[in-house]
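Risk mitigation, structural track. In case the binding assays with adenosine-5'-triphosphate fail to produce interpretable data, a predicted complex structure has been prepared as a fallback.
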Amino acid sequence: MRLSRYFLPVLKETPSEAQIVSHRYMLRAGMIKQSSAGIYSWLPLGFKVLRKIEDIIHEEQKRAGHIPMLMPTIQSADLWRESGRYDDYGEEMLRIRDRHDRDMLFTPTAEELITDIFRSHVGSYKDLPLTLYQIQWKFRDEIRPRFGVMRGREFYMKDGYNFDLTKEDALHAYNRHLVSYLRTYERMGLQAIPMRADSGPIGGDDTHEFLVLAETGESEVFYDSQITELKFGDRQIDYDSVEQCQAVLEEFTSRYARTDETHDEAIFAEVPEERRRTARGIEVGQIFYFGTKYSEPMGATVVDKDGNRVPVHMGSHGIGVSRLLGAIIEASHDDKGIIWPEGVTPFHCGIVNLKQGDAEADAACDAIYASLTALGLEPLYDDTNERAGGKFATMDLIGLPWRITVGPRGLKNGVVELTSRRTGESEELPPEAAVERIAQIYGVVAKG
Ligand code: ATP
Ligand code: MG
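Fallback model:
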């Protein structure tokens, strides 16, 4: 993409309404624009990152054997009356009346609808296990929307639902989700720690929240520092293997890590003092086993091996897709702007032309641009007439992890400059070598 043809409405001033750094940078980098409280338009740069995050989630869900689908945002109240949640949900639910005076609502989550789909089409244990998921907009009329996309009213969420014959099977689905989430967040350059969370009114159920440590997080968390040393890395897990998934769960949840809702001072005190940490975290996901909570009242049953009709065991598993943009920025920035991890960066590399209009510099930039594009990479080429300082400031603000700087002086010696956004370190090398390096970083190889 050439910047002169793109839509990147960068703000010079720091918007006064933004209290935290991710919100400030998302506004300044022209990623989002508020349309009303807690509701945002996703401008091209923000939309690009949102799509990257979504792509990673789809890839990892597929790897775990989960099936994508899409449900409507507007739902009939009737299903929610069946489960009893129409009255329970309270003010956070946006209720709508249609022209026929029917009660509708904007989905805050979709357990009821998916359970209805299940009961309409599945009737035998032979069709299980089954895990369906979607990535879809949700609406919760939060009392205090704030921090930009972190606590919106309209927000983008991955919500998945497992259907299993037995509690054991459903717990395997739970573990499988935990494993796939660990991989998912790591690919986004994040460390998200599974923490035992509050199971709500129905006791005995399993639930973990995934938290990214950040000073601006809304949750207070307590953990054993050893947990931050764990890495999922690129291990190959057979998601059908109960033992393998269980082993990962045990590894990642056996150390103390809890939110304030489940925190227990007495148990925490058993962690050696030098490893005890109190911090703040951003909730980026949650997995939940809730058994037959919806399947029983809604009649989602299957015939088991002995011919008996039994309610299915279910769980739901969410990822805060739009919130993740904020969380990633909170975890990765400096005082000049965002520093995108390679896995989610909106463009792979920036190209800065120090002397636009100089025939040689223009030609060199065009050649680098063409080579990167041919490799399947997406560069953002600042081909505007802005002075160098302004170009650097924009690149730093929008946070592309790599920048190639091209100027007449370097070209005389046959070199361009390759700069890491994260370390600020620069290296001079021939244009082809710079392209080669970028290709290596992103794991792509020249074709032919
Ligand atoms: P919170 O405690 O932050 O209100 P929640 O526990 O009610 O969240 P879930 O129902 O678990 O939320 O939803 C799954 C994920 O969706 C959460 O882990 C979070 O990342 C994200 N999420 C929830 N509410 C919002 C919101 N208002 N804005 C943006 N993301 C949200
Ligand atoms: Mg939650």
